[in-house]
Amino acid sequence: MAYRTILLELVDDVQNEARILCGRRLAERFDAELVGIHVSLPPFVPVGYGEGAAYVGPEIFEAQREANRLIRERVEATFRRLCDPARMAVRDLYEEGDPGTVIAEAARGADLVLAAQESVSGLDALAPQPIDHVILSAGGPVLMLPRQGLPETIGRRVVVAWNGSREAARALKDALPFLVTADAVMLVAGGEDAARSLDAATALLKRHAAPVQARQLPAGSSAGAMLLEAAAVESADLLVMGAYGHSRLREIVLGGATREVLRRAGLPVLFSC
Length: 273
Hints:
By secondary structure, this protein is of the alpha/beta class.
């Protein structure tokens, strides 16, 4: 398999240019089409207006539309400046709606999604993050790009989390284009189920000619912290893991290890579920 279509979330922040350059490098590496997508929130009535919302004038909505237009112009200009259609397959999409929902729907027509790491400060940290919904609903791998410190290369030294679950197996297989071209792959296992299936997972990667080694993680209270520590020990530039939801709350609540890695990771992380 290969990544032939890469969907890149375009966000108007200080890291936008770095993420675009990262997406461009990956598209060139995998000979893929790069599709940039920016989603604007629809105009809304500020909560503070309360019962007076019915009397809010149209200027409130027009101001929001104008702000969205200016943001789109900035994002579009940066994307088109950095991605030359004469040199690579590239296109960009601009939509209005809920970012998580719109990006997840677009992701179903892509092989890989590049999404921004969630906010951890300010009001944004209290709201549902687009990446949460994208991971759970994209139907394929989502590569989270960290808030800062994006590496020049991604996927040369890879740590793969293994616990024997369906989600872990899906993540391992979804990451194969990275794993078979990596310089080193460390399969790290935690739990009894992982120990029983670790040899089979290692053999699977070896049959794909991935340069894999395996080791068992010590028992610990925080799987997320152990995975991030293992990535640091291996000097990894990519962590691969399954994303876990909790049964009937799957659509709104991600598992503890997933949540910790989403918030704390300082390296790119490929999630599948």
